[in-house]
């Protein structure tokens, strides 16, 4: 599974192209090294360079385009809780919500002019002015206003709680905004302009989402008018907001196959929920009240298919676009389809890793056992056998915040890591296990199954680490990352998944700092926390570079986890589907799905 990474800046919206991947947080980031297989129907050369293509006047065509990004079931219209913020769920909900910016194929950030605009009006204090377009409205006709930005601030504000920051009112995947922007959005609640003033410099300020779900719906379901809701948020009146927060946390979660009532699920983006067949698909339909460029095709159906069945489904024309996990066999199968399809390939900002469980009582709280495990994981073998056939330039990844295709990668690695785990050292691992009286220690490796490549990774680890004296157990399961699944319960020693990002400078804080929502393994190091605090409160690239090196070294010294490789990007589409383009960002292939159209 892929999880998206989030930082203090939770990027949201169809136009915003964000997604994460903890089973692979799902998103990928990219720099200018992204590439794409050229073929008929993939847009102009200009479109391939970075942002969304200017397709001229667009009229929504009748018809359906079918896409699959994986087998996991749709979870919720609200994709910003810790249990719903995955690439799979976000691939759907991000088509329904608009943000103030979006990432192009090369990781460049663009303003989403359909929703509005923003500008920095001061650096000290950092102050940003946002202007919402006059005609921007929710699909139910309600104007998009400052009230919606206040909701976005509220759900990420730990100062709204039940008497303790450990008990926030809103179960959000991002929780820092109340301290980052203490006063919240300033402007008339029903107006179209607002400013935000940051307490400290924030390098990711342009990525910050100030638009999530509709404030008027949350207010109504909480027994308040929109004006009363905004006032309660600004007054910090947690008691008055409890019912509204409970709705935000739970009100959009329904049984599989049952969509939330349309009156409580309006959208701000080009598509809205149409239908849901449990275990099969979700269909989005064009938002007839969308104020921006209308989507090119009326219906977009997300099919829930296992990776192993995607190529056949594409060949049979059961689906039009696929985004499988890249494997040698998958690429070969796609190439055998010839001119019937277009293949999209390139670098991504998604990376595979093995994370330890630091919960009290878990065997992996022992640093020596973590060292022994790191010694026996055959990372080079995994890369050689599973990744190099897809990307001949692939290498073992030895960083977390920079990628092998980025210019500063080697500089960061050289300062943080001495290569001690590059080669398998069975004898060294054996010695540690004997000294720790830990021979036979069971290591349960959990991941989202079925997943051919991860099953092969675990098999390679088992072959090597069992020889060293561990007892490796493959604990892959369909619900490993689900609410109350093994990861949620802490019933594992090692979690195998991937994070996907979109170029955020401070996104790692949400993963590695003490108590953060995406710190699933409960890791804690005060030096790491301090380094992130320094990095996230500076606009100076030199400070970012210095603190990144420090953080990487601390994470290696502690063995927070073990990076393995950067994911190669691979997707494919029928040759009759226009404007399908690779991106390295975490939205992956669906990042511009509203522009897809079937050739006539």
Report the β-strand fraction as a percent range.
15-25%
Shape: globular
Distance between the termini: 36 Å
Q: Spans of 5+ residues with little confidence (pLDDT < 50)?
A: 1-49
The main pleated sheet reads as: 11 strands, mixed
Structural class assignment: alpha/beta
Estimated radius of gyration: 23 Å
Annotation, overall tally of beta strands: 18
Number of separate helices: 18
Helicity range of the residues?
25-40%
Average pLDDT, all residues:
89
Task: Summarize the structure in short.
By secondary structure, the chain is of the alpha/beta class. Helix content is 27%, strand content 19%.
Characteristics of this structure?
19% strand; 18 strands; 600 residues; eleven-stranded mixed β-sheet; alpha/beta; globular
Describe the protein's architecture and organization.
The chain has helices at 45-49, 87-93, 146-155, 177-180, 215-221, 226-235, 238-250, 307-315, 328-335, 367-376, 379-387, 409-416, 426-435, 452-468, 486-489, 509-512, 526-536, 541-558, and strands at 2-4, 61-70, 101-103, 109-111, 116-123, 126-132, 193-197, 271-277, 281-286, 297-304, 321-322, 341-356, 442-446, 471-474, 494-500, 561-574, 577-578, 597-598. The chain is an alpha/beta fold and 600 residues long. The longest helix has 18 residues, at 541-558. The protein is globular, with a radius of gyration of 23 Å.
